[in-house]
Amino acid sequence: MRSKAAYFSIIVFSIALFSCGRYEEFKNSATENYPDAKMQKYAKYMIQGKQLYTTHCSNCHQENGDGLGKLFPPLAKADYMLADIPRTICGIKYGLKGQIEVNGQTYNQAMPALDRLSNLEIAEISTYIYNSWGNEKGMIEIKTIKESLSNCP
Ligand code: HEC
User: pLDDT band at 36, cuts 50/70/90?
Assistant: First the structure.
């Protein structure tokens, strides 16, 4: 009896929805929600990314992304980093060494590998550093991390 009543109310509800022309409205609101879901994911990456950055990166690159003197290069508006996202992803996972030039300044120290970070964590950190301190590269997806890591030098 219960399930019959349930069916009955579903039918009545559907008829009401269709007959009032509410169905279109209902359908449109469902599709409009999609960008919200994307924004929520972006917001989550930024929040998690900031935490991970504080734990794993800010000792050297500093909380404000300015780096530290001639030892640690800046990430804020850093031409080297902005020019190549896959290179940054490989650097986070496997470390970086050798002479590089960032915003006209030469650096030559080793950055340690952080190979225990998961692809999701690297995506969160990357999204955070590429969208903070004036950098505006948009969301960096796990898919991009996987692709980049399979092509590291
Ligand atoms: C122990 C200090 C240290 C830590 C921790 C560290 N880095 Fe670095 N990072 C460096 C050094 C030193 C270089 C320059 C390497 C070179 O000279 O080849 C560098 C270079 C870079 C570069 C490329 C240069 C630029 O400024 O554009 C990026 C991007 C970067 N680091 C991001 C990160 C991120 C993200 C984290 C955290 C996940 C991190 N680093 C953690 C020391 C560090």
Answer: confident
The residues, ordered by sequence, that sit 6+ positions from 111 with a Cβ below 8 Å of its Cβ are 60, 91, 95, 96, 97
Domains plus CATH for the chain? 35-149 (1.10.760.10)
CA atoms within 13 A on the CB side of 109: 14
Q: Which atom of ligand 1 is nearest to the CA of 92?
A: 38
Name the nearest CA neighbour of 58 among 125, 123, 150, 117.
125
Pocket of ligand 1 (CB under 6 A): 56-57, 59-61, 72-75, 78, 80-81, 88, 91-92, 96-98, 100, 102, 107-109, 111-112, 114, 125, 129
**Stated pTM of the model:** 0.83
